[in-house]
Amino acid sequence: MSALRNMRRWITANATQALWRTAPAIPMPIIDALQWTLNRGGRSLPMLAHVVRENMRAAGVFDEIAFHDYFRHVARHLSNGLRIRRLRRREDVAKLAHEEINLDATVAIIKEIAQSGRGAVLAPAHCCNYLISLARLRQDVPIYIYLRWSRDQRRVAMKREWCEAAGLDVIIEPPNVSNPAARAAVCVDALREGKVLAITPDIAQKASEGIPVRWLNREAYLPTGPASLAMLAEVPIIPLFARYESETQFLYFEEPVQVDLLSRAEGGRPESIRRAMQVWADGFGRFVQNCPQAWFLWGDSRWTKVLRGDAKYSGVVNPSVNEQTTNAQTQETP
């Protein structure tokens, strides 16, 4: 089974790189036609459509309109990846992003932080069209992306080309950074210099590896990285989500999440990180419930395990404890 998964990943990775290499030669009308085909074809694929439908149902957000809209937005997302490569020039990508993405009034939250010279961990969910949504945000706020070193330099080069076309500033991990502590140090230095560093927290983790949070009436596990870095650098986390109004995507920000180090009696560093990630997860849950068609990861295998109750990835929340903890956090959150 693992060999089959590895083969699928290899095929997907190589197909993606092949498309990326050939995209500059693909005429725009062909990309438009591909978007239409992906929209129609995605929801017609039995296995994929079944997984997305059942995951939405498990999350309590399924309806036919959201289901169909999801595939339409995913088709646009994937096609825009090709358009970025086809356009190549930063000003052309910026124009595309401006046409499709808007910022609501809450952008003032991150603008104020960026203009003050303070750093921040920007924590966006994987919203559809994230390939150009950050390019749109970059028009108002400098955004840095941390690219991890990889032996597969084609993959790194592909990501770097996307960042450059989108106007995003890049922090390239040195090849000699071989442990998490050294990697964290690079990020913390950037945050202390006042940079806004984008890190996506909605990557489902195994129970043995992540921090537990309540999410859609279940326990899920998120990475500790965003909160750990924010605490070390003494900067806030800025949650970022999206909604649709007609065909236009609006990015919106929630209030900064401060990661204060608790005393040992209160739970110390682990509890500090858990509380901060729980606040982010609360906003993440609202986003998924209010605009399920905007979340890109409905077909992700790890989130499928969470939503299907795989004990390695999810747990059951005690309602009474859930309510008590939520009330306590509400009182603590400014």
Please characterize this protein's 3D structure.
- With 334 residues, the protein is of the alpha/beta class.
- The chain has a domain at 101-332: Glycerol-3-phosphate (1)-acyltransferase (3-Layer(aba) Sandwich), CATH 3.40.1130.
- The chain is built from 13 helices and ten strands.
- It has a seven-stranded mixed β-sheet with strand order 1-9-8-2-5-3-4, sandwiched between helices.
- A hairpin with a 2-residue loop joins strand 8 (237-245) and strand 9.
- The protein is globular and about 60 Å long.
- The N and C termini lie far apart (48 Å).
- Residues 1-14 and 320-334 have low confidence and may be disordered.
What's this, in brief?
With 334 residues, this protein is α/β, with parallel strands linked by helices. Helix content is 55%, strand content 14%.
User: Which consecutive residue ranges, at least 5 long each, have pLDDT under 50?
Assistant: 1-14, 320-334
Question: What string gives the helices and strands in order?
Answer: HHHHHEHEHEHEHEEEHEEHHEH
Average pLDDT: 85
User: Strand-residue fraction?
Assistant: 5-15%
Structural class: alpha/beta
> Quick one: CATH class of the domain at 101-332?
Alpha Beta
CATH architecture of the domain at 101-332: 3-Layer(aba) Sandwich
Reported for the largest beta sheet, the result is: 7 strands, mixed
Shape: globular
Q: Cα distance, first to last residue?
A: 48 Å
The radius of gyration computed from the alpha-carbon positions, rounded to a whole number of angstroms, is 20 Å
CATH topology name of the domain at 101-332, in short, is Glycerol-3-phosphate (1)-acyltransferase
Helix segment tally: 13
